[in-house]
Structures are given as C-alpha cells and as structure tokens.
Amino acid sequence: MDFQSLIDGLLKGDARSAARLMTLVENDIELAEKVINSIYDKTGNAYVLGITGAPGSGKSTFIAALTKKLIALRKKIGIICIDPSSPLTGGALLGDRIRMKESFSVKNVFIRSMANRGQLGGLSRATEDVIKILDAYGCDIIIIETVGVGQSEVDIFHSAATVLVLLVPGLGDDIQTIKAGIMEITDIFVVNKMDLPGADRKVAEIQQMLELNLKYRYENHDNQKSSEKGNHWIPEILKVNSLTGENFDELMKAIERHRNFLNQSGLISKYLENRIKSETRQIVKYKLIKKIEELLEKDDKIDAYMREVKNKSLDPYSMANKIIKLLENPKS
Amino acid sequence: MDFQSLIDGLLKGDARSAARLMTLVENDIELAEKVINSIYDKTGNAYVLGITGAPGSGKSTFIAALTKKLIALRKKIGIICIDPSSPLTGGALLGDRIRMKESFSVKNVFIRSMANRGQLGGLSRATEDVIKILDAYGCDIIIIETVGVGQSEVDIFHSAATVLVLLVPGLGDDIQTIKAGIMEITDIFVVNKMDLPGADRKVAEIQQMLELNLKYRYENHDNQKSSEKGNHWIPEILKVNSLTGENFDELMKAIERHRNFLNQSGLISKYLENRIKSETRQIVKYKLIKKIEELLEKDDKIDAYMREVKNKSLDPYSMANKIIKLLENPKS
Questions:
Q1: Which sequence spans correspond to the domains of chain A?
Q2: How confident is the model at residue B221 (pLDDT cuts 50, 70, 90)?
Q3: CB contacts, 8 Å: B28 with chain A
Q4: Residues A211, A216, A219, CA angle at the centre, nearest 5°?
Q5: Which residues of A touch B309 (CB under 8 A)?
Q6: CATH topology of domain A44-267
Q7: Which of A315, A323, A325, A327 to probe by mutation at the B interface, max B CB count within 10 Å?
C-alpha cells in the first residue's frame, strides 16, 4: 500500500493503516517527518493522560478499568505502553495476559506497545509522533503508560495534559522509587488496591510529601505550572479499586476537574507550548547529532583536523569549533 | 591566583594548581576550553589504563596494589575515580578509608574523585579534560576507575589505551552485570581474590565467553581493534591477589605486552583517533545543545513559530528545521 493510501486510511479510522504508520515513525525519522507533515492539521482533538507507577502498582488493571469507563462514555481511546514489563498489550482488556506483538485494536480502543522500540531517534520523539497518529485516527483520549524511570520517560510526560501517579498501600518506598521529576508534574495521585490494609496511611503519606513539596516550591518560586499568580492546581489524592471499579466515578470527575482547570486558567496554552518546545527540542537534537555523526565519518576535513590534533597543532576544543562551523556552513 | 599562574604551577608539577584546574574544567566548559587550549601541546606522554568491575570485585585494593608496583618503578601516577561507591579516594593508599573531598596527592600519586561531578557538560568530556591535566602535570600512567555501568562510562573507556576488567571467584553473575559494551573493549581480564575457591572456574568461564565472543566477532567482522588483517589482540586472563601482591609481576608484564602490541601493530594510532573523535563528539554535542536551549529560550522567532504550530499552520518537524537553519545562520 502506498504512503498516501495509508494516510487516507488513517484519517478514515482504519486500524491497520494506523499500525503501519506507527511502525514507520518509530523506525525512520525521515518517514516520521513525512507522516507528521501530512497529518498535523488533523490533530489537536485528543486529550492526553499520562499514567505512571512502580512495577506492582497495578497500572494495567487500572488502565483496563479506566478504559471501560471511557468506552461507556462512547469515547474512542488510544493507549501507548512504554513500560517493557507491562502485560497491558491487549491481554488485560480481553481478560487474558497474552502479550501482543506491537499493536492491537478492538472497537474504539487502539493499543500500541512501544517498549524497546523507537529508541534510536529518541523514545519521547517517537511517542509524540504515535500520539499524533492516534489523534488523527480519531481518539478522544490517549493514555500513555510508563514505569516512570529514566530521563526519556520524564520527557514523555511533557506530552500529557493530566498526569496520574499510581501508588499502593504497603509498598513502603514506592514514593521514593518514582523519579523526582515525575512527582513534580503529578496532577492526581491514585492509591490503587484501596482494599488492602494501609490505604489511608498511604493517602496521609502522600499528603505529607505534597505539603513539603508545595512549601518548597512556594519558597523557591519554581513551580512552572503555577507561575501565574492565583493559578495553582493542588494535586488531588484518590483511592480506587481497579478490580471492582470502586471510586472510578470520582476518579473520572477528578480528571475532568483538572481538565477544566487547565482550560479556565488558560494554563492549557502553557502546556501546549511546553509540549511543542519539548518535541521540537528532541527533533532538533536528533537531527543535529545525525549530522555530526555523518560529518565525523565522511568529511575530508575531519581527517586533516585529526592529524593536527594528533601532532598537537590543534586541540580538541578547537577541532570541535571547526566542526560546528562546518555544520553551520557546509561549503566553507 | 590568576589563570596563568595556575597553568604555570601545573606544568611545574604543583598539585594544588592541578586540583584547582580540575575543578574549573569540571564546572565550566568555557573554562575547560581555555585550560585545554593552554596545555594541550604539553600532553601526550601519559599512558591511560581503564579499570572496571562490579561492586565487590575489589577495585580499590587492586588499584592500590598496582599503584605500589608503579611507584617502585619510579612512575608518577594519576588516578581518576568515577565509581561513586569507591573508597579509593586517598584512603586505600594510606591504609585507611577516609573519603577525601575531591582530590588528594602524595609523592608521585595524584587521586581525583569525579563521582557525581562534571555531569552537566558530560562526565566523559570532563574526565578526558582531567586526564589531560594529569598528563600535563607529569603523570606517566593514568588510571581511570569506573563501576562500568551506563553509556557515559563506556564513553570514558575510549580514553583508555588498555582496559582491565576485574572479576572475582564465586560472584556468579558478575560477568553478566558488566555492560556488554565494556566487555567488547576489554584487553585484560583480571580474576581478583585468587585465593578464594573457584578462581580457576572463573578463568574457565571467561575463557569460554571469550571464545564465543571472538567467534561472533569473526563471523560479523565487527571488531574495530582488529580491523586490519593480522592485528588481533587476544584478551589475556590473569589471576591475582591484591592483598598479597601475588601475580602482580605477571600483570605488569601483561599490560606491557598490550602496550607493545598497540605500538608495534600501529593500532595505537587508531586508538588515538577514536579517542579524539569521541571527545570532539562530546564537545560538539554539548555546545550545540547549549545553543539550542539558548535559542529556544530567547529568540523572538521561536514565539512566532510556536504560534504557528499551535494554530496548525506549521508542524513540529518544520519548526525543528527552521530552528536548525537559525542555528546555522543566526542572522537570517
């Protein structure tokens, strides 16, 4: 099937076209550019939720329960799994745990596993492109699931308008294991498995940590999201049971409250700007690093510089400056 | 003390000048550039050894024993510790375990701890600059100690002419915990704590893994170091006891054999080229990323692009291309 047919298929809601375009953007940044060029003006309708939590916090069961709620509201849902240990790829929604190869769709739900994929050109770059494909595919809500470790996972959360962090009673140090950067951008804390002993204690722990954190932010004026006076979102804390669905109505309302807050405060615009900046930064970095590598491998001048550095008539910083000039002005 | 006095002090072998220059290159890439500009033509005499091993493999005791041998040969030695858990910073050589703040010197030995330092501009960039300072300071041998995890640590090993990997009997999976990339560049395997049961089995395990690896390399023609026909270094395997010094004479001979091999085969030139390429690449990347961040924060055009991306008249890839053009031609 040719490229334009895939784009046409995607815009008509064809799942196979969507899946094939995702593979293209994951594997090849030049094709990614072509895909995004073609679909960008059809994006912007989907609302992006980021969900993270340590292994064992029940992310996949939680997402399955959340998805059921959204399906009942006649929403079309896209799910992107970054967590390589996630059993979510298809299995959890169907009641079994078979791991799907890469993508899977049932009526109104499309699941894409990006674990161990798209690393080459940057996982967050590829994830942002897959979000846009799901958006153009017609999804109303896109859920990104990550395990919340590593810088690229924090970058991924720039894509999410509302960030949910899952914790469970008992698991004493799960708050600590979540990377600090993700804590800072959490909008809703969810204590999953609320039937287990210690759920209320976990809520109190989060409350305490939150107060410390807010005090710190206040003293250091470093909270980007609340930089405009009066625009403060105080993260909510909720207990749920993903197996029984208990408190999911309340959870849906909390998500809606945060979404309304972003719209009414105008911070949705700040979110979009940060998201655009973050993805543009990823693309620029990737393209420049590719150029550097090509230059180091192929340009004749590099060998000459290398000889000079070897015989000490040039030092590595000066060579680096010459390479930057070559990048800026290839014909000089 | 002014900059030129520090440089003069360094070149006369003043340890305090060396330590202060190291702090400068770790904290500020512009000062690093100035330092390397000033000393580069005085470098190139030191031979760089890289030493890695999992925690518990006895790296600091091993390095202390190796250093004693080198002191006896009237060598001047520089040691750079990257391993944040290393107790080597001064203590091990003096018989106690007091952790030094950042650097420490006794007659003919200078130790610098870079754990948790110089991360900002790239740990491997800063390490390479500290190597040059130790080289200009007059060191004959520079030892880099790392724990061998993470990409930046693998990058650091581009600086080393001879790479030693420490393993210990018993610790069954220590071979697996060492990052594959480091295994590929190992020149000498050292089974430390040879008095423990299982030392010979460990040697056999390494031998076996090495044969598999060499077979794989041979079939895939991907061994850079042996890319010229006939230039094959077969990694050596040695047992030592760092507490008693047993087999350290043999170890010194093995290091000398590898050094002679590099010189006689001409591969020393390839090593230097790879090292220069690696450090130049780090510098170029860091400088470009800094430029991108400045541009994203300050340039007026960015806001205009951002508005276009928000209203869908421009997509993020096209914005990235415009930013790359701005970087290449700031006045356009």
A1: 44-267
A2: low
A3: none
A4: 125
A5: 276, 280
A6: Rossmann fold (3.40.50)
A7: A315
